[in-house]
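Here is one chain, start to finish.
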Amino acid sequence: MHTCFVVGLLLASAAAMEGFQGIPRCSAIDPDTAKAGDTVGVTCLHADKSNVAEVYLTDGKNDTKVAVVEQSADKIKFQVPNMKPGRYHLMFLTANKSSMVEQPVVLTVQ
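Its structure:
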């Protein structure tokens, strides 16, 4: 009976992790300081068009859509729009447009 419980738990864990595999996650932004018109690269997982519909910079109150110039599963490059100076988190609108996913990377706009 103990073996059945462990196998069931492992199967449930695997199923739960499967649901998270398509969630985009970013780990680095380069450069981390830029000005309007600059191109910025972001290292990510699951960032292709099948997972990410739109890319934004957010200060927690205002979201500004950015122009994506390159997009693949592991990298997104975008152009910094005209916006007020400050620190902004990267945020994605998921491909099914059901949620916004804020990323742990920060861009300082000069």
